[in-house]
Design a protein that fits this description.
ABC transporter, permease protein, 333 residues, disordered C terminus, single chain, mainly alpha, transport, 3 domains, MetI-like fold
Length: 333
């Protein structure tokens, strides 16, 4: 055997030995990783919720969440089922069981045609109150909260005290004084009796104040001022995009509050042509208790289902902004 062949065989044996050593080292590394992961899982199981990356599974919490979910979804399921019934089936069948006939489409058509289509008028009124009232409240809250957060002026602390005091006063306590004031001004039984009170949202103002403090860096505003941008342009082009999560959060709160408002229109409005959906559906519900009144619970249920659909759509579409808005400022950087 020549020296070249011997050298080649030695080199091949050396390579095979290196490959075996590398594979052995890799197997050892994988075993170490598995041991470390097992130890981490055991430590996480002992730590429980102290480790946010490995929370302990709790059967009790799962059951409580399931019960809470059922509690929240039960009214919606009840509406879905009973909106498919005729009036006869509604009074003669089990509440969570379907009727003898599926009348959902007939109920929807009847809702929009009953009493010369007054439900459509109530829906338009509600949209008007929400768009003008809740939209105006959101805009005023944005501008007021931003000004309080980024500008220093005399009386700022007094404004803060007034806002906190306004939040602590329930809206129902102000309904009667508002009615007396609007009666003096001759605005009762008009859309302004619903729109003007809806323009004020102390909680929305406070929320935008706190959010603006964290979301809009003062250094960014100073840079814009150095570049010659006016305060108005700085607010609309720089601050507004940064305030988007807070704006959506405030808008959701004001929209829901205006959409579900019941007591204010109850005392302010007498003309059914200006009723929102809440008062109109309640009038339909009470119709059976009046002399010669016709029971139309199936229409009330169907109308209620139609009423909540816009709110469900709004929450599903804006959910990510709503969650980020609530979480903003929760982590210190």
């Amino acid at each position: 055997m020549s020296a070249a062949e011997t050298s080649a065989r030695v080199s091949a044996a050396g390579l095979r030995a290196q490959e075996r050593a590398a594979k052995k080292a890799e197997r050892e590394r994988q075993r170490r990783i598995e041991r470390d992961e097992a130890a981490e899982r055991r430590r996480a199981a002992k730590a429980g919720f102290a480790n946010v990356n490995n929370p302990r599974r709790s059967m009790l919490m799962t059951v409580l969440c399931a019960v809470f979910a059922v509690y929240c979804l039960f009214p919606f399921v009840y509406l879905l089922i009973n909106a498919t019934k005729t009036q006869a089936d509604f009074t003669s069948t089990f509440g969570l069981g379907f009727g003898k006939s599926f009348a959902l489409w007939d109920n929807i058509v009847t809702v929009f045609t009953y009493q010369e289509g007054i439900f459509g008028r109530w829906l338009i009124n509600t949209l008007l109150y929400v768009v003008v009232g809740a939209g105006g409240a959101t805009l005023l809250a944005i501008m007021g909260g931003y000004a309080l957060a980024k500008f220093r002026f005399p009386g700022r602390k007094a404004v803060f005290a007034v806002i906190i005091g306004s939040i602590s006063v329930p809206g129902i306590a102000l309904a009667v004084p508002q009615f007396l004031l609007f009666a003096k001004l001759g605005l009762t039984n008009t859309p302004w009796a619903m729109i003007i009170p809806s323009l004020i949202s102390p909680f929305g103002l406070y929320l935008m104040w706190i959010f603006s403090e964290q979301a809009v860096p003062t250094e960014l505003l100073e840079a814009a001022r150095v570049d010659g941008a006016s305060e108005w342009r700085t607010f609309w082009t720089i601050s507004m995009p940064l305030l988007a999560p807070g704006i959506v959060t405030t808008a959701l709160f004001t929209i829901v509050a205006t959409w579900n408002n019941y007591f204010l229109p109850l005392i302010m409005l007498k003309d059914s042509n200006w009723y929102p959906l809440t008062i109109g559906l309640n009038q339909w519900k009470d119709q059976a208790s009046t002399a010669g009144g016709q029971a139309i619970q199936n229409l009330v249920i169907t109308g209620s289902l139609i009423t909540i659909i816009p709110l469900v759509i709004a929450f599903l579409m804006l959910q990510k902004y709503w969650q980020s808005g609530l979480a903003a400022g929760a982590v210190k950087e």
